[in-house]
Amino acid sequence: MVDHEAGLYRDLVEKARKGDAxxxxxxxxxxxxxxxxxxxxxxxxRTKAEDIVQDALMQSLKxxxxxxxxxxxxPWLRTLVHNQALMSIRGVRNKREVAVGDGxxxxxSGNAQELxxxxxxxxxxxxxxxxxxxxxxxxxxxxxxxxxxxxxxVDAHLIAGLPVQEVARMLDMTSGAVYTTVSRSRKxxxxxxxxxxxxxxxxxxxxxxxxxxxxxxxARHYRFAGAYNTMVSMMRLTIAAGGNRDCSLSDVMGATGxxxxxxxxxxxxxxxxxxxxxxxxxxxxxxxLGYSVSVFxxxxxxxxxxxxxxxxxxxxxxxxxxxxxxxxWNVSNAEFGIxxxxxxxxxxxxxxxxxxxxxxxxxxKLGRLHEDTEWFAAVPGRRIVADRAESLCGLFMxxxxxxxxxxxxGGSRKSDLYGIGGSEAYRTWIRLLxxxxxxxxxxxxxxxxxxxxxxxxxxSYLRGLSVDGYMSSLCPSAVPAITHAQQQYARVxxxxxxxxxxxxxxxxxxxTAPGPADRAARLLERALGIELEAASALEEAASLLAxxxxxxx
Length: 553
Prior knowledge:
The chain is an alpha+beta fold. It has three domains: 3-207, Rna Polymerase Sigma Factor, Chain: A; 211-247 and 291-383, no CATH class; 248-274 and 387-553. It is 60% helix and 8% strand. The chain contains 20 helices and nine strands. The chain has helices spanning 3-17, 21-43, 46-63, 73-93, 104-117, 119-123, 126-143, 148-159, 164-171, 175-207, 230-241, 249-256, 278-288, 306-321, 388-405, 422-434, 441-467, 470-474, 479-502, 514-546; strands at 213-215, 263-264, 291-297, 326-329, 336-343, 348-352, 359-362, 376-383, 420-421. A hairpin with a 4-residue loop joins strand 5 and strand 6. Helix 16 (422-434) runs antiparallel to helix 20 (514-546). 40% of the residues are buried.
């Protein structure tokens, strides 16, 4: 590990020791696979190893503050996992006083056993003793979610570590039924953990005299022209609800870079336009528009622990109490929406997206509405003073790098998470059309509509910069280059409009048919050349802006 990386690593450990949940989460992401390997080598059971890692993570979260030497984090973590694994084996070998199926007494050999190991210490510390009793009570309450059959399977397989086939014979079940029961039980217990944490949180709010409900009636999706890009649409709503109703969709499309972005999946499927770095696009967009923002989760990230949700709820409630909505992913459908209110009595958020308005979403389901969904919420913050010249310079340079390189940061493509971008996205379209192998009519129609919309906003955004007088006062020498770029993006928008007419939503011409496919491919070849020319003009404008003295507005 080079010195710089070692320094960053020590910094993560030090922040985690001081209670920084984000730093601790990053350490977990880096070492979770190692932890599974350490546990599996001891217990020789992948399912059991998962449980051991979960327990070890709970212990590390509680104990990391006592780690004196950050450089010893990995050995310290390995010891925790190893001890947890040995404790699990010891629990299997010990004779049970209660038969399998009794539920609670068996579960004590798992999570609650660790609490008993510190009973002597707790006896001398009333606060720790109370916390231990509360944890045991939580386990009892979670068990109540399970049927007697589910408790028996959990005891035999997850706690005692018996093979699935042996559990099936013992309980007169098929192996498939055991697997199904284990999966269902895990989901129930996970749900119980989240609901228990939320219940504690709501109780604490009530004791602190916090508002029990709030709602932003002004934020409605139908009040504005919507956008295929639902992140932009929802950002526009939060900014307007916060008092800035002069900010247009084109302003947000430009500030976030969405107006200049093109992203596709390898098959031009409908998921392609969402394959970008949500966090960077949203954070940069809010900053360029003059707002700070707190972001939780991101593209490809899932909510893993209840405390992550609780940490986000702190900021969500502060914003909603001020009647400022929060942008979030998958509040109803797989798209961006907004949280417009809350109700502690119902334990529910009020949410809105393009498919639903004022729908109730349970507190504990935020980021977990559907299985394997991403976890993302963004809370707008205070107004900040933005360096407009610096913002525009960065936007223009990133736009040029994106169209030429295709990567999320303008360089080479990073990963499948962020799809195929820039000129390579164009070439993917053209290649599939030329081979007459673009077989998804809906994907073709949706992607064409998204890029057509984006390029219309690109032309509108640049037109606003060049004709409203602002750029003339900021950097008059850059106006010709920006005007030229605006004209080229208008031409690109026209080309994409023609493609969108060939493949209109919801279904258009067959994208594998020779006539439409060839016509679309030639349109996109020309559009790519024009867009590269526009990128050169934006680079020229960026160079001129960078040479001017810093001006803030």
